[in-house]
Write a structure and sequence with these properties.
14% of the residues lie in helices and 50% in strands. By secondary structure, the chain is mainly β.
């Protein structure tokens, strides 16, 4: 079997081949003629970014560009079709240059100039459109301004609820921009509305609005505000009347607190969450220790009213007066000579080097009139010193009244004690 031989003449008689060959040939010829043609074409490159360059003296004086009338320009170029068609906006640099010093902020017309900005150089720049750009130049300024409340409050609450003052998530905003524009700001207001019947706290996002000294709103895109909105919370809380109770320590037997103690006021109105009010049956005042009371001198106390976190004092009463009726009570001085030791280690021997203590004892007049020095004993407890302690020390004492009730010791007292280790004979 004979193989068919390749024939160029036969190939050129093929219609499909001739069509492909003609298309490729025409493209090659067009490319060659275009590259070697002496006739240039004019092309416009659009959306070329405009760069503004300030003089060094202007920048040293704090000036900067805040806006320009055009951000991009169109540049006409001339070159052969292949080169002109390949030029992109980033291949061209359009600049507006300010020269010399500036004396004040203003809008300045600056001429635009274009130049090649890449390795593609087989073309020439014909013109720039626009030929000038208006540039606003000023110094930068930043101010912290306290907000004012212009929110519309048109709400009601039940008589068993309390509406507090509004709370702002921020009370100042930072405003920045061109100095001339920033200094036109006279106030910053929070605007919004809280309306309706409220039974719980409500939070809105209030708009931050700038005003000039004529009370006109300022809407300037050159001014930047740190916050467009600020959260404003109106606390609406249930309220309840809560009784006030004093606390006492070392109350003598038979001293009737209910009959002899009064508190003014007896209660205050408190607002808080339902949980907080439920867990607050009464308001407790600071403790009053009878050991610090002398019935001849101490009968009235002004104590701070303190509420748990999350509660508000609607009555706005910050202190309560506690009065103690000491009618029939008095005080007198007595001398203690009887000392009784407690918690002395078996291997130790303790003795009081203080021979007597003068104390003030308070109580009902009829009981004090029957007391003698022999009715008092000073209890010396060595528990805190430990079993290994040895030597001399000062120990607080507790004064007890033997076989009598209704009395208490005014003040605190100490005695000097010496502790020695027993000899073997003594321990045996």
């Amino acid at each position: 079997m004979k193989k068919s031989k390749f024939s160029i003449s036969r190939l050129f008689r093929n219609d499909k081949f001739l069509m492909v060959f003609a298309f490729i040939s025409s493209c090659i010829l067009w490319f060659v003629f275009s590259m070697n043609s002496s006739e240039d074409t004019v092309t416009t490159i659009t959306d070329v970014p405009i760069t503004v360059v300030l003089s060094q003296s202007a920048m040293d004086d704090g000036f900067q560009v805040f806006s320009k009338s055009n951000d991009v320009a169109s540049v006409s170029i001339s070159g052969n079709k292949i080169t002109a068609g390949s030029i992109k906006p980033e291949d061209i640099l359009v600049t507006a240059t300010q020269s010399g010093s500036l004396s004040s902020a203003n809008t300045y017309p600056l001429e635009l100039k274009a130049k090649q900005n890449s390795g593609k150089t087989n073309y020439s720049i014909i013109s720039v459109d626009p030929s000038f750009v208006n540039v606003y130049i000023d110094r930068a300024r930043t101010l912290d301004i306290k907000v004012t409340d212009k929110i519309k409050y048109d709400f009601t609450v039940d008589e068993t609820y309390y509406a507090g003052n509004p709370i702002y998530s921020k009370d100042t905003v930072t405003v920045s921009g061109p100095e001339n524009e920033v200094l036109k700001i006279d106030s910053v207001a929070l605007e919004g509305e809280i309306t309706g019947k409220l039974q719980e706290s409500e939070t809105i996002k209030a708009s931050v609005v700038l005003y000039n000294e004529r009370g006109e709103k300022i809407d300037n895109e050159l001014i930047t505000v740190s916050d467009e909105t600020i959260d404003v919370t109106l606390n609406v809380l249930p309220e309840k009347e809560i009784p006030i109770r004093p606390k006492f320590a070392n109350v003598p037997k038979d001293f009737n607190l209910d009959e002899r103690v009064t508190v003014e006021p007896e209660s205050i109105v408190v607002a808080g969450s339902k949980t907080a009010l439920t867990t607050l049956p009464y308001i407790s005042l600071d403790e009053i220790d009878f050991n610090d009371l002398n019935p001849e001198n101490d009968a009235e106390f002004d104590l701070d009213v303190q509420l748990p976190s999350g509660c508000r004092n609607i009555s706005n009463i910050t202190s309560a007066k506690v009065k103690i009726d000491f009618t029939g009570y008095t005080s007198t001085q007595m001398t203690v000579t009887d000392f009784e030791f407690r918690n002395v280690d078996n291997s130790s021997q303790a003795t009081a080097t203080t021979t007597d203590i003068t104390v003030v004892i308070a109580g009902p007049e009829e009981i004090l009139s029957e007391l003698s020095d022999d009715d008092l004993v000073a209890i010396i407890d060595l528990r805190d010193k430990g079993a290994s302690f040895e030597g001399s020390t000062e120990i607080p004492v507790t004064i007890n009244v033997k076989n009598k009730s209704g009395c208490w010791i005014y003040g605190s007292y100490t005695v000097n004690v010496n502790v020695e280790k027993k000899t073997e004979a003594e321990t045996g």
